[in-house]
Amino acid sequence: MKLIAISAMGKHRQIGLNGDLPWRNPEEYKHYEDTVRGHFLIVGRKNYESHKEDIRIGKPLVVTRNPNFRPECGAPAFQDVESVLDYLKKENVNRAFVIGGEGIYSLFLPVVDEMLLSFVDYDGEADTFFPEFDQADWEIVKKEDRGSYLFCHYKRI
Q: Which of 4, 10, 39, 122 lies at a CB distance of 3.0 to 4.6 Å from 114, suitable for a disulfide?
């Protein structure tokens, strides 16, 4: 099974502001939707609650510290990384995407196999950030200037 983190970020790893993206980039967002559609999406509770409709393009798996949280869409909820990985293995999933927010990226980054990162031209305010990672652990297998953003596909070395 491949576990893939996918995110768009600004010049200083910004990924969110007040529960939403701090920019609008329809081209990059279409890339995101086309990539994750129909797949399992590992998402934090706050991100899930802010973007319920958007997340339904896939099969959400909600990660939360609250053991009583039940997503209204009927998606399963988990309290830790190991439970999510066990569920994915049990379901014979060959690919799942980690879609954030910040805390979820931090929890799952040590176990993801690949990252699909879009770098947008944003240098403004944010309250959530993609975690720093050691470039020495990753190989860039694809780098493309897509006009309104730079796309990089990383694989763990």
A: 4
For 35-54, the DSSP string reads: HHTTSEEEEEHHHHHHSHHH
Distance CA 36, CA 5 (A): 10
pLDDT tens digits along 56-115: 899 999 999 999 999 988 899 999 999 999 999 999 999 999 999 999 999 999 999 999
Class of the CATH-defined domain 2-156: alpha beta
Query: Rounded to whole angstroms, how far apart are CA atoms 44 and 19?
Result: 12
Question: CA neighbours within 13 Å on the CB side: how many for 53?
Answer: 0
Residue-wise pLDDT for 65-78, tens only, equals 999 999 988 899 99
Q: How large is the greatest C-alpha to C-alpha distance in the chain, in angstroms?
A: 44
Decide: 127 and 18 in contact? Cβ < 8 Å.
yes
Over residues 19-40, the pLDDT tens digits come to 999 999 999 999 999 999 999 9
Through-space distance between the first and last CA atoms of the chain, rounded to whole angstroms: 16
CA angle 121, 23, 8 (to 5 degrees): 65
> What is the rounded CA–CA span in Å between residue 77 and residue 84?
9
- DSSP letter at 20 equals B
